[in-house]
Write a structure and sequence with these properties.
The protein has four helices and 23 strands. By secondary structure, it is α+β, with helices and mostly antiparallel strands. β19 and β20 form a beta hairpin.
Length: about 400
């Protein structure tokens, strides 16, 4: 009996067909997943290779300047002239002539416009006539006074000889004194007439509008036939004159960073109209007041050298620099590229280098920021072409098309 229970046959060692099918299915599942993942990756790479090129903007790496100063602060503002004047009439009148136009170079005192001065001329002529009457009256009194003095001398001599009476002498003396008093009054009247004539002449001059200083007319606000009035009375101007030799930069600096700016500090300006033109500038002054609403302080800078391309009210970006002493220990840079060409990749910095029709993702070591540029200490060379503002999905080896 015991031997019968422990006895096994070959059929007992065989695997059931159902169990074999289940184990085989479980074995193939991870293999299928791996194959599918590889296929997806391959399809993605293939799609990237065969897809149309991505249009990108590029910039050329520039050789770094020796001893370039680091940027401590960036700000934006406008070109402003220190001397700008809206020339207007001092009186209300009708414009008869406008002798200025936009872009015209004017000299100090040059006539810009004339108003209708017919009434003023008549008043001036009347005042001049009154002055002439006062002057003629003085001449008449001078003649009478000379005659009175001669009669006084004769009467005085006759009185000494006992021929003329005391009364005759008193009469001659009174006549001289009276005429001297009349002459003094006439002199005052003449002075008043001269003053009135000067006022009338000045009033007449007010009908002629002149340039207050040499410069360029940047606007023309009046036309012949229009009525104009002083600006403070609600009237408009004749023209706006700008002294182009007084152009400077005015920027608003956040008051939290104003300690980084000092008079005499070097800076670099870039006009919005000429983004590739870097203009040396120097801090002239810091306006000693803050704007409480914007929390900013105005800073004015002068251009180290003026250029005809610099125009009033142009937008400008300013990079305030460190002094040269602060950059003596800085490591040498190989080249400069726009800051938008450098992409963050974790703790690393990379750029996309243009290599024929494709891009190469390359790690770089960066240095200081200089305005809109950044120093490249390793990884690039001058004249290398890099992508700026690279698309987020740009990949290494991807085909590109450079935009014009």
């Amino acid at each position: 009996m015991g031997d019968a229970k422990n006895k096994h046959t070959l059929s007992d060692l065989s695997i059931d067909d159902g169990a074999r099918d289940v184990d085989s299915g479980r074995l193939w599942i991870p293999i299928i997943l791996v194959i599918a993942l590889v296929a997806i990756i391959a399809a993605a790479v293939l799609a990237m290779r065969v897809s149309g090129p991505v249009t990108v903007a590029t910039a050329t790496a520039r050789a770094a300047e020796t001893g370039a100063a680091a940027t401590v602060l960036n700000a934006s503002g406008y070109v402003e002239p220190r001397r700008r004047a809206t020339v207007a009439a001092k009186i209300t009148g009708r414009v008869t002539d406008v002798l200025v136009d936009e872009g015209m170079v004017v000299k100090a005192g040059q006539v810009l416009a004339r108003l209708d001065d017919a009434d003023a001329r008549r008043r001036t002529d009347a005042t001049r006539a009154s002055r002439d009457v006062a002057r003629a009256s003085m001449a008449e009194i001078d003649v009478n006074l000379a005659d009175a003095r001669r009669r006084f001398r004769r009467t005085h001599e006759l009185h000494g000889d006992g021929v003329a009476s005391e009364q005759d002498l008193d009469t001659a003396t009174a006549a001289v004194d009276a005429l001297q008093a009349q002459l003094a009054v006439a002199q005052r009247n003449l002075d008043a007439a001269e003053a009135q004539l000067a006022v009338a002449v000045q009033d007449l001059e007010n009908y002629t509008i002149r340039a207050p200083f040499a410069g360029i007319a940047v606007s023309k606000e009046a036309q012949p036939g229009e009525m104009v009035a002083p600006v403070f009375a609600g009237g408009g101007g004749i023209s706006t004159i700008v002294d182009m030799t007084s152009l400077e930069i005015e920027v608003d600096v956040n008051e939290s960073y104003i300690a980084r700016v000092a008079p005499g500090q070097p800076a670099e300006a870039v006009l919005d109209a000429y983004p590739g033109w870097r203009i040396p500038a120097t801090v002239r002054t810091i306006i000693p007041t803050a704007d409480r609403q914007k929390a900013t302080v105005k800073v004015r800078l002068t251009f180290d050298e003026l250029d005809p391309r610099i125009l009033p009210d142009m937008g400008v970006k300013v990079a305030f620099r460190e002094t040269a002493d602060a950059t003596d220990d800085a490591p040498p840079a190989l080249c400069l590229v726009p800051r938008s060409a450098v992409v963050k990749d974790g703790d690393r910095r990379v750029v996309f280098l243009v290599n024929g029709e494709n891009v190469e993702r390359r790690a770089v070591r960066v240095g200081r920021e200089l305005g809109g540029d950044i120093e490249i200490l390793a990884g690039l060379s001058p004249e290398d072409l890099v992508v700026i503002e690279a698309p987020a999905d740009l990949q290494d080896g991807q085909k590109i098309k450079i935009e014009n």
